[in-house]
Amino acid sequence: MSTPFALSSVAATDWQPCGVGHVAVYGTLRAGGINDIARLRPGIACIGRTTLTGTLHDLGYYPGLQLVGTQQVLAEVYPLDAALEQALDGIEGLWPTDVGEYTKRILTVPVALTGGGTQMMAVLVYEALPTTVQHAPVVPASDWLAWYAGKGVQHPGTAFTLNTLQNRK
Known about the structure:
Elements: E1 5-7, E2 22-25, H1 37-40, E3 48-58, E4 63-79, H2 82-91, E5 102-113, E6 118-128, H3 130-133, H4 144-151, H5 162-168
Antiparallel strand pairs: 1-5, 2-4, 3-4, 3-5, 5-6
GO molecular function, one term: transferase activity
Protein name: Gamma-glutamylcyclotransferase
InterPro entries: AIG2-like_dom, GGCT-like, GGCT-like_sf
């Protein structure tokens, strides 16, 4: 696995895509999560799964992953275009205003493809900033959705849609 690098956050008027063609999601954006990526892009298909190495934190109703540590965290990989990336930036609080919770990272990881085989891919990952997770407990599991479901807590949030995000602009 390559070393991640940060992408600087930019003002809304200066928004630019990160330039990679895939995103790895590990929390509420996974299939079945409150912000299931298919709600943003109906018909989108997971192309495979990977594990991200770091430390997964419990931020209440969603997780935060720091790419520091040795925990193996399950992530689903989806195709990414500029419109979807901008919508994801809205969910993660990076656009149109950066709320200081996450940063964007590009990692090159092996992806177990749904059709079989493994392929190295550059993927966008939303990493929690150190101040976001400094007091958050570590999730003692690699699969955040399964762990959260096991807590038996009803998620209070409303799922994001492209309309929700467009109305926030």
